[in-house]
Write a structure and sequence with these properties.
Helix content: 55-70%
Radius of gyration: 31 Å
Low-confidence stretches: none
Bound molecules: arginine
Mean pLDDT: 94
Order of helices and strands: HHHHHHEEHEHEHHEHHEHHHHHHH
Largest sheet: 2 strands, antiparallel
Strand order of the largest sheet: 1-2
Number of strands: 6
Shape: elongated
Length: about 475
C-alpha cells in the first residue's frame, strides 16, 4: 500500500490524496525533459507578454512573471535549481518555483494555455534548434569531402559493384557521391524545419481558448513563421519529432555506409587509406594492429538511431486524437538520437579529414580484375562498328584469354587480340589503361577528372547559398 501523500499543487482541488510512489515513478518525465528548460521558459515569457498585451493579465503581473522566469533560468544554468519528480515535468517544476519566487501572480501564467500546447511548443523549438545544428555539422562534413574530391579528382581507384572490381573511377568522384548523399540530407533537414515552423502555442488543451489571445504574436516572438491552424492537430502532432528521427536515420545510414567503406579500405588487404593515430585504436595483444573503431562505432550507432525512429512511430501509431500521455515517450528517443548523430557526424568529419590516401594502392587495384573490359567493348562499338552485344562477347573472350595467361588485358599481344577479332588494331591499347578509361567517362555526372572538378565547383557554389 502506498502511503498517503499531499495532493498535487496543480490539480489538488479534485484530489484527496497524492499518487502512489510507483505512479510517480512511471509518470515523471523531469529526469529527461529538463533538457527543455530554456525552451519552456522562452515559451512562457512570450505567452505572458502576449497575455499582458492582450489585456488578459496586468502588465505588473507580467513583469513579475518575467522577472521570476529569468531568475529560474539563471538558477537552472547555475545548477542550483532543485528539480522534483513530484512535480512531474519541466513545466510544473518551473511553474512551482515561479510561485515560490513571485507568489500569486505566478498562477496567472497558465491562463489560456495547457501543458499540451506548452510541451508541443517547447519540443518544437528544441527540435528546430537541433536541426539547425545538424545542418551546420553536415555542411562541415560536405566541405571536407569537397576538399578531398578536388585534390583527388584524377586519382584512379577501382569502382565496385557487388564489391567486385567493376570499372575504374576516381577517388574524387567517389567522394562526390557522398557529397550528393549528405547534401540530400541537408535538404531534408531544411524541408523538415520549414514544415515544423509553426507555433502550436495557444491551442490550449485541444480546443483553443475563449480568452482573446494573439497566437500570431506568440508565434512571431518565438521565431515561428506562423501559428498552427488546427488546435486538435497542434497538440496531437509529433510529426516534427518523427521527421527529425527519419532525417537522422537516413543521415546515419549514409554515415554507416561510409564507415563500412573506411573499414574495408583500411584493411591491409585493400590498403587504400590509412587512418590517422587520432582516429584509430591499437590492440592490447597484437602490436601490429590499427583498428578503425570510430568507423565501426558509427556503423553500429546507426542501429540505435533507426531503433528510435521505429520506437516513436510505434508510440504514435495507435493514438486517438488529441493528446495522450503516451506522447511523453517522444523525448528520450529524440534526445538520444540527436546526441548520437552529433557525435557520428563529428567523428566522420574528423576521420575523413585526417585519412591518408594511398594513391599507389588505389591505382594498382584499379587495373586489377579486368576493369577496363567495358572500354574494350566500347572501343569495338565505336571504332570497329560492332553491335554492343557482339562487342561484349568478343571482350569476354579476350578477358578469358588474359585470365588463362594470367595477364592484364593491355598485356595481350596485338596478334592475340586479332585472333579474337580481326577488327582490333593497335589503337585499342589507348583505351585499355585505367587513366584513359576514366578520362573517357565525360558524360554529365561521369567520373572523368574534368567532370569531377565541374561537380566540385557546382556544389561549392550551391552550398555557399545553402
Ligand atoms: N510531460 C508531458 C509530456 O511530455 C507534458 C504534457 C502533459 N499533459 C497532460 N495533459 N498530462 O507529454
Amino acid at each position: 500500500m502506498s502511503e498517503k501523500k499531499t495532493s498535487n499543487q496543480m490539480w489538488g482541488g479534485r484530489f484527496a490524496s497524492g499518487p502512489a510512489a510507483i505512479m510517480e515513478a512511471i509518470n515523471a518525465s523531469i529526469g529527461f525533459d529538463r533538457k527543455l528548460y530554456a525552451q519552456d521558459i522562452r515559451g512562457s515569457l512570450a505567452h505572458a507578454e502576449m497575455l499582458a498585451e492582450s489585456g488578459i493579465i496586468s502588465k505588473k503581473d507580467q513583469r513579475e512573471i518575467a522577472r521570476g522566469l529569468n531568475t529560474i533560468l539563471s538558477e537552472i544554468e547555475a545548477g542550483t535549481f532543485e528539480f522534483s519528480a513530484k512535480l512531474e515535468d519541466i513545466h510544473m517544476n518551473v511553474e512551482a518555483r515561479l510561485a515560490e519566487l513571485i507568489g500569486p501572480a505566478a498562477g496567472r501564467l497558465h491562463t489560456a494555455r495547457s501543458r499540451n500546447d506548452q510541451v508541443a511548443v517547447d519540443f518544437r523549438l528544441w527540435v528546430k534548434r537541433e536541426l539547425e545544428r545538424v545542418a551546420g555539422a553536415l555542411k562541415g562534413l560536405i566541405a571536407v569531402f569537397l576538399d578531398r574530391a578536388e585534390k583527388h579528382a584524377a586519382t584512379v581507384m577501382p569502382g565496385f559493384t557487388h564489391l567486385q572490381t567493376a570499372q575504374p573511377v576516381t577517388f574524387g568522384h567517389h567522394c562526390m557521391a557522398y557529397v550528393e548523399m549528405f547534401a540530400r540530407d541537408l535538404s531534408r533537414v531544411r524541408n523538415a524545419i520549414t514544415r515544423m515552423d509553426e507555433s502550436p502555442l495557444g491551442a490550449a488543451a485541444l480546443a483553443g481558448t475563449g480568452f482573446p489571445i494573439d497566437r500570431h504574436r506568440t508565434a512571431a516572438a518565438l521565431g515561428f513563421r506562423e501559428p498552427t491552424r488546427n488546435s486538435i492537430d497542434s497538440v496531437s502532432d509529433r510529426d516534427f519529432a518523427i521527421e527529425f528521427l527519419s532525417v537522422a536515420a537516413i543521415t546515419a545510414t549514409h554515415l554507416s555506409r561510409l564507415a563500412e567503406e573506411i573499414v574495408i579500405w583500411s584493411t591491409p588487404q585493400f590498403g587504400f587509406v590509412r587512418l590517422s593515430d587520432s582516429f584509430s585504436t591499437g590492440s592490447s595483444i597484437m602490436p601490429q594492429k590499427k583498428n578503425p573503431d570510430a568507423a565501426e562505432l558509427v556503423r553500429a550507432k546507426t542501429g540505435r538511431i533507426n531503433g528510435h525512429l521505429i520506437a516513436l512511430l510505434t508510440v504514435m501509431k495507435g493514438l486517438p486524437l488529441a493528446y495522450s500521455k503516451d506522447m511523453q515517450e517522444d523525448k528520450e528517443a529524440v534526445f538520444d538520437a540527436a546526441e548520437t548523430l552529433d557525435l557520428m557526424i563529428a567523428a566522420m568529419t574528423g576521420m575523413v579529414g585526417d585519412l591518408a590516401v594511398n594513391e599507389a594502392a588505389m591505382r594498382e587495384a584499379a587495373g586489377a580484375g579486368y576493369s577496363t573490359a567495358t572500354d574494350l567493348a566500347d572501343w569495338l562499338v565505336r571504332e570497329a562498328g560492332l553491335p554492343f552485344r557482339e562487342a561484349h562477347h568478343v571482350t569476354g573472350r579476350a578477358v578469358a584469354l588474359a585470365e588463362e595467361k594470367n595477364l592484364p588485358l593491355e598485356k595481350l599481344s596485338l596478334d592475340e587480340l586479332k585472333g579474337i577479332s580481326p577488327a582490333i588494331t593497335a589503337d585499342v591499347y589507348s583505351v585499355l589503361s585505367v587513366e584513359n578509361s576514366v578520362k573517357s567517362r565525360t558524360s554529365f555526372g561521369g567520373t572523368a577528372p574534368h567532370e569531377v572538378r565541374r561537380q566540385v565547383r557546382y556544389w561549392k557554389k550551391r552550398l555557399a547559398r545553402a
